[in-house]
Amino acid sequence: MAPVPKHPLRHDLKAAPWLKAASLARVFAALDGGGETRIIGGAVRNALLGQPVADIDLATVLTPDAVMDRATKAGLSVYPTGIAHGTVTVVADGHPYEVTTLRRDVETDGRRAVVAFTTDWCEDALRRDFTINALSADAEGNIFDSVGGLDDLDHRRVRFIGSAEDRIREDYLRILRFFRFTSAYASGPPDAQGLAASAALKDGLQRLSAERIGAEMMTFIVTPRAGEIAAIMQEASVLRSLVPLDAHPERLARMQAIEAALAEPPDAISRLAALLLDTPEDAPRLAKHFRLSSAEGSALAAAADVNPAYRADASEHAAKVQIYRAGTAAFKRALRVAWARSGASATDIAWTQRDRLTAHWTPPALPFSGADLLALGIPAGPCIGRLLKAFEAWWIEAGFPDDRAAQRDHLIALAKQR
To answer: Which residues pair with 39 in a beta bridge?
Structure first.
């Protein structure tokens, strides 16, 4: 059990500046006629922890029809974004707020739930995943807690509400959410009951879509304790249930240490490559398995590159050539993945100096174009491309000289040889 903090968290949000936002006040005024509507979940949790609040979600005893009617009469825009599950998006002053009617589960299959509306706040809380996600707050900042979420926040614990196995069987994605939330919010080891249930029911992950798993993993991978928690997931055989590739939590932990030593923010692509990629051929397999976007897949493939230039002992010229060819962002990712694979310290001088090369050297653009060759009297056609390629090869080999006269003389010499 994590120790009780010396300075327990505030148990109200009365000082939260975002609670006084005019747009939120308009939504409360439209919907709240006497305690029917509260802020729910992540906004309350993060605010109590002193962490940034991004989205503010609301829960209400009002039915979706009543929400839409009241909001429309108050001059607010309304969109039935998840009406089957009781969710309506209300927009005030350009700010969207998801408003969901209190629910209870009628039937679940591990992926989707059939719900019925309720007016019982406790009943709604009991169907949520973790105690720290079931906290709610009224417009004045008063906190409501029926499942022990405040105490768990104070002790930095992530616990399922009620039976961990029951909560997981309702939605197997909660296995991944358990590890993600533990990495993001807990200060000690994973909750024993939650860990045991996740290990026992890990086969249920096969019932989830690749998109859901991929999105969850991309969120997990950038959490503060991802490497440490990934090692626990590996020991519980959860990672093997997610992807048919060998996992290397120790590499992920080194990648985190490298980012911290370089004062860089977490990068999901670099971390994913460090954790799961052994060869460049693994990259497209993983991208397809997690249904990553084309841009993410391309970035992952670049991060998995094993060009010798991505070594601390490669020459500076070789590194510059690779920066020129791959681009600065791709070079930094592949270099750091190679660094994490090498086992070298996060403060290793040679690796650090090579990483910093991108900070003081920007790859130049090729000095000439096809138009320049046409101006020299070279006829249009395939020879233009061949001459540019030959010039580029000389220019790179010469160390990217910026002497315009020397560049032009060499280009003219090449043109005469055609």
So the answer is: 58, 137
> Structurally, how many domains does the chain consist of?
2
Last residue of a domain, one of 157, 190, 224: 157
Contact 236, 198 (CB under 8 A): yes
Cα–Cα dist 238/190, whole Å:
14
Residue given tokens 């395939």 in the structure block: 382
Q: What is the pTM of this model?
A: 0.89
Q: One-letter amino acid identity for 389? A: K
Q: Domain containing 71 — which CATH number? A: 3.30.460.10
Amino acid at 287: A
For residue 38, what are the domain limits?
Answer: 1-157
Binning the chain into helix, strand and coil, the percentages to the nearest 5 are 55, 10, 35
Q: Which of 131, 157, 183 is the last residue of a domain?
A: 157
pLDDT in tens, 83-112: 878 899 999 999 999 999 998 876 666 566
Query: How far apart (Å, rounded) are the C-alpha atoms in residues 101 and 401?
Result: 66
395 within domain boundaries: yes
Element (H, E) at 320: helix 316-326
